[in-house]
Amino acid sequence: MTTPLQILIAGPYRSGTGGDHEAIARNLARLEEAAWPIFELGHVPMIGEWVALPVLRGAEGTLDGTGEGDGADVMYETAARLLEHCDAVLRLPGESSGADTDVAIARRRGIPVYFGLEEIPVRG
After folding, report:
1. Which domain holds residue 89?
2. Is 90 among the domain residues?
């Protein structure tokens, strides 16, 4: 393989946090911990929240205010669109309906889903 893969790192973000901002930040930090090893393997790491959070901030004031579903919808839709440009998914451990959806989309697209960094091929 000579071309780097763009690999979406999928795992818990809001799941299990009860909306606690510190717990959410810890989950994002866990996702980001996988970025450097993917880069060292010669690939481009991507995390859906890196894209979705600025989109969500831009949408403030335009959402209809019916509840948390608005933000979740933006997060899930951003991830779905992003997956159209990714070559693989790294699924980190932990309960997450969003990450499970990312895996399902990847499988429908026929792109690899890795469950550990050791499964990701080294770019040669």
Report:
1. 6-60+69-119
2. yes
Q: In angstroms, how far apart are the furthest CA atoms of the chain?
A: 49
Residue with tokens 């893969």: 5
pLDDT tens-digit map of 79-103 = 999 999 999 999 999 999 999 999 9
In whole angstroms, what is the distance from residue 77 CA to residue 70 CA? 11
Number of domains in the chain: 1
Task: Tell me the CA distances in angstroms from 8 to 1, 5, 30, one per residue in order.
Answer: 18, 10, 14
**Backbone phi and psi for residue 46, each to the nearest 5 degrees, phi listed first:** -145, 140
Tokens 């866990």 found at: 30
**What's the pLDDT tens digit per position in 49-69?**
999 888 888 876 555 444 444
Question: Do residues 1 and 80 lie in contact, with contact meaning Cβ atoms separated by under 8 Å?
Answer: no
Instruction: Determine, yes or no, domain membership for 124.
Output: no
The DSSP 8-state label assigned to residue 123 in this structure reads P
The verdict on residue 54 lying in a domain is yes
